[in-house]
Amino acid sequence: MMTLKIITPLGCAVEAEVEKVFLPGGAGAFEVLHNHAPLVSTLAKGTVKYGIGEDLQEYAVTGGFVKVENNAIVVCSEK
Length: 79
Known about the structure:
The chain is about 0% helix and about 75% strand. It is mainly beta. It has one domain (about 1-75): F0F1 ATP synthase delta/epsilon subunit, N-terminal (ATP Synthase, domain 1). The strands form 2 sheets. The chain has a 5-stranded mixed beta sheet with strand order 2-1-9-8-5, with no helix packed on it. Strands 4-3-6-7 form a 4-stranded antiparallel beta sheet, with no helix packed on it.
């Protein structure tokens, strides 16, 4: 399992334990799974999809960045 936090200027919008996260990366969409290599990426306008198995939730972002490290994913979004 991984921890996902989506932070906006208004505070923490999402905090969840997840198995997978799909992100709209600045250079193209990508997926993060358990034990993913550390990375920092810009985000484009799009939808962050996250969850366990086929039960996925969605959160729309208008840009920002993501940091992945030690099974913790932190998304800083402009919206």
